[in-house]
Amino acid sequence: MIINTELEYKGDLFPATITSFTKEVDSIDFYTDNNVIMRVTVLRDSMIRFRFTAKGYFSNDFSYAIDKRQSHGYNVLEVTEADDHFKIQTSKVYVIVQKQSARVGIYELDGSPILEDELGFHWEECYEFGGNIVKMSKMSPEGESFYGLGDKPTHLNLKGKRLENWATDQYAFHKDQEPLYKVVPFYIGLRENKAYGVFFDNTFRSFFDFSHERKGVTSFWADGGEMNYYFIYGPKMSDVVTTYTHLTGKPELPPLWTLGYHQCKWSYYPESKVKEITSKFRELQIPCDAIYLDIDYMEGFRCFTWSKEYFPEPKRMVQELAKDGFKTVVIIDPGIKIDNDYSVYKEALEKDYFCKRADGPYMKGKVWPGECNFPDYTNPEVREWWASLFKEMIAEIGVKGVWNDMNEPAVMEVPTKTFPLDVRHNYDGNNCSHRKAHNVYGTQMARATYHGVKRFAFPKRPFVITRSAYSGAQRYTSSWTGDNVATWEHLWIANVQMQRMSISGMGFTGSDIGGFAEQPSAELYARWIQLGVFHPFCRTHSSGHHGDQEPWSFGEEVIDITRKFVELRYQLLPYLYTMFWQYINDGVPMLKPLVYFDQEDPQTHYRTDEFIFGNQILVCPILEPNAQGRRMYLPQGNWYNYWTNELVKGKRELWVATDFDQIPLFVKEGTIIPKYPVQQYVGQIEHPELSLEVYFKLGKEKSFVYEDAQDGYDYSKGRYSYKTFTLNGKEKELFITQHKEGSFEANYSMIKIKVIGLPFEVKGIEIDNEKILFDKNEINITEGIVIDKDFSELHIIGV
């Protein structure tokens, strides 16, 4: 007898009527008569978590993304019931839950809608793998804009786009290609000048649709797992980004040298080639702090080994490089070569640390060493073992940083480019398939690497860089944007990627300057350097298959431009270090798109090129060949042209002429920019003084300078200096006051103050209420005056 056993296709399923609810402290559970439970948890007055299950109970609540060190709290939580809905109110918003459909609306206290369900939560049974495909759709009114989602090579404003989150090795990717290496399922919505955020914490393959399929509807869904998202209310975009960054965590402060310029290639070998490269930097006086070794430094691409032919004495070499100011950074990939004579492989095999297929055998795939097995970094025991492997490299040889690549994870010669979906993972005791663990594999590798480098670098700070990442990876690692291409299109992509990553919580990011694949022209390389020095992570990297890509590969003119802009970066190190301090303490992004800077100006909503570096420097790269200038948008306020010191009124588009050795740079009026003298590497010289470039303003403005020992952990014990400089400009007077927090004392004793745009002739100077006698012919305030670093108030009096 033959019967039809085909499974019934049920299509989309929806919650039925809510029949009851319970409240426990900060959470309210709503129960429907078809076994759906919706849990609403108020974490802050402006942050609410929504979890849904269609099976009548919740699975273990576990997330790699959430920073468990963060504390939350709210001021108001009131739950009331009406005939057709429930109302949950905080001091910032209220939530309406419809009884009949469990649909949700979130509103300002005056009743203005912020985010309302369209279909709301629904799901579809996944017969192939089990579980559900979980879905959410929201109403999206006309004029709403969307930002975020991390590493996406597309327009900054995501309106009208559909995007996919599945960490993928995309060599030589192109504009609008999906997906890429990183997964950050967090977006910012902006409607009627009010911002909110949604973080969909689901590690399965997921999708976001911003009114692409259906006008007026925004939706997000995942191939499995739980519908689990966090709603964050602004109304300022800065509030949303900061709250999300606190939720998923911030890094520790990096050593200052990591903010210098770095040089990399696939590959520098043998040792003589490495020495040739580093010597040339010093000969040409182009500052550089780090040299990178790609996979060819290893013995047959085996991790934690050194090629006896190319690097016979790595400890001596690393020490000699260090004497010349170069820190050595090496690559480590996840693939462990199958080789019974290889100690790392043997130990992992004996301890059963490799990922397995569903029916038992180890996951095997081809990468650089050939056939490999892969550690399960979602197993805490494996992470501890992996961390222990860095002892020789860091503590004994003296390597200063580790670079994790190929950790999407990438597998060669298979159509999917990665592990089969049936591979099993420990997932910190929440056993699962690769469908769930794929997007966090790279983060957990970087996490294990971070703990190893930190352990053996102590008392210095660790430095780790990763290609693949999931939300929260910023707690352990910096990142770069993968295998880009030497094209003008990719210069545009790099600019947008860095802005997006910064407002997506992963600020310490950069691109391969000049492009990894293919060969840039001299002009393209110069323009990329001019942009790259304003990205938090600054590294030239290229594929050796396409020619040389050191600054001297493009002729004298490019050497001079590279030197000029890298020197500018080194001068701005105290400004950049201060940006980092504000990022790790306050969750403030280091790069700010114009829409972040002024969300109320609709002209900023679709700008991609210009961005704010820190809080007060406006950068606009040249993104096209043969340009002698460009049109750009100056946001609200008044801005000084950095090159000419001309004061220009903002909130308008204008033409800015630039030479080949310039890009448009503007400084917000009232800014005080700290600068160090040029040095060839961090720590080369003791600074005789700190320079402050003061940009006059009628009115008040605050600027900040963070300093510490530049490495080590004394800063965590209060031995740091955080100075607030307040400028107060008047028609015939200028006041600059200084307030300091922390016990750190810099080595320099003097500060040089240079005032730009002073509208009056100087008649007198007072320091801490004491008049200073000076000869007008000898002291020029626009050239700079030198005063004691511990002054409280500088008063410049005009005629």
TrEMBL record:
Keywords: Glycosidase, Hydrolase. GO terms for biological process: carbohydrate metabolic process. Gene3D superfamilies: Glycosidases (3.20.20.80), glycosyl hydrolase (family 31) (2.60.40.1760), Golgi alpha-mannosidase II (2.60.40.1180). Residues 689-757 form the DUF5110 domain. PROSITE patterns: GLYCOSYL_HYDROL_F31_1. Belongs to the glycosyl hydrolase 31 family. This is DUF4968 domain-containing protein. It comes from Flavobacterium stagni.
